[in-house]
Amino acid sequence: MDRKPEVHGHVPSGSDINTKGDVAAQVVGTEAHAYDPSVERRIVRKIDLWVIPFLWFGYGLVYYDKAILGGASIFGMIDDLELRVVVDASVDPPVTSTQRLSWASSIFYFGMLAGVIPMTYAFQRFHLSRIIGAAVVLWGLCCMSTALVTDHQGLYVQRFFLGFLESIMPTAFMVIVSSFYTQREQTWRQCLWYSATGAWTIIGAGFNYAFAGINSGALERWQYLYIMAGSLTVLYGLCFFIFPQTPYAAFFLRGDEKTISMERLRASHMGVRCNTIKWDQIREALTDPKVYLISLMMGLAYTVNGAVSAFGPLIVRTFGYDPFTALLWQMPLGAVCLVTTLGAGYASLLFKNIRLLMLIFCSLPVIAGCALIWRSPWSAGGAAPLAGYTLIGFFAPVTSLIVSLGMANVAGNSKKSFMASATFVMYCVGNIVGPFWVRTEQVAEQYPRVWKGIIGSYAVLVAVAVLLGWMLRRENKRREAMVLDEKEGERCAFGDLTDRENLWFRYAY
């Protein structure tokens, strides 16, 4: 007779679940309850209607106030704030450098790095909507203060604090989606709010183009952009105070819908929310290889954004376009980001465990686009480099899939928060590195450093994705071979166990 595989893992006592576990255990208990699938579908529609648009608009503001820098740089900010310096005056024309602009872009992410730990602790430990709402209002005020800056040193200080305040948003949004949706639903919903990257590239280009036409008033054109973006952000922050912490607290759900909204999450074994910081989960995350691999993938993927968000319009201008046209040519890039992100997310609903395959597939156009820009002749109105620039938009589904992989493959609220923070740290690293690959003194050589850097990053990214897929599939097979009590699995679902502790948890790839 075959011997059953030995089961390793932690099964908490009932008291552990009630005192240290997820808030869902206090609502639905430790035993599974049947519910009407039609009611569940109605609940999901309501959550989609209220939560996703709210997150989409918020992340659009996160993306737009960074992308303003690229538009503002070609409409006076560089000269007004002394962001361009002459490095060789012996030639005609003099050789100039925009390293100060690179620092202005990158120092924002140093602020994010400084803020990620205290901000993540705050929304994990305290009332989520109040903490985020207050941070967003302060972020909006900080954004508007850019109009008061008079030199590059002042811009550096303003950008650092702007990044510090914004650091709460991406990690909070990742955790919010994992608290409202099942594991299978998450990729599509993460992609929905993340698609704001593409949509707001289009919207932002339109705003930048419109404001660039202002020729009157006491302020410069780029200053009006920051005042407008900051005002929208303050209004959004005030609205965030009514955002529900959990599905059970959602004002748009009624009666049994609140209970079912929690019960339906049991099968994913991912939990909803636990305000207790559990240091054993943090220690486990520090020894979990997939935390490092997923975070590394995010850093590699975001080198593109670091370069394009700050220098995109400047790069397109070197293709032979005037400043106004260079702004409008950000729209096709945004459209590619939008469509491909939504397509990748929807495909995850149709096909199980397709995330990593889609990630690899979407990485290839980014590599091809960089190669096309690098090796094509840059002439007035040249189509080839512009086509390559547009192909770079495939980075958006790559990064959204990485976000989904991070949140779908960890359990335990403290560990999820750590995973979100680790992913976000590497997001910052990629955004810090990217701008320094753009050397304006190398424009005659068509910026070879940035294209080589991105191609190399995405080649490594593909290799890491293959390794991660192999690891997750192997662990799932090991767990499938075990004989586990399903009733015990139901009891543990809301025990705030990690994915390692809970052997009923299955990894998604």
From TrEMBL:
The keyword Membrane applies. InterPro entries: MFS, MFS_dom, MFS_trans_sf. GO terms for cellular component: membrane. GO terms for molecular function: transmembrane transporter activity. Residues 51-477 form the Major facilitator superfamily (MFS) profile domain. The chain crosses the membrane at residues 47-64, 101-121, 128-148, 160-180, 192-212, 224-243, 291-315, 327-349, 356-374, 386-406, 418-438, 450-472. It is a multi-pass membrane protein. It is found in: Membrane. It comes from the Eukaryota. Keywords: Membrane, Transmembrane, Transmembrane helix, Transport. This is Major facilitator superfamily (MFS) profile domain-containing protein. The lineage of its organism: Eukaryota, Fungi, Dikarya, Ascomycota, Pezizomycotina.
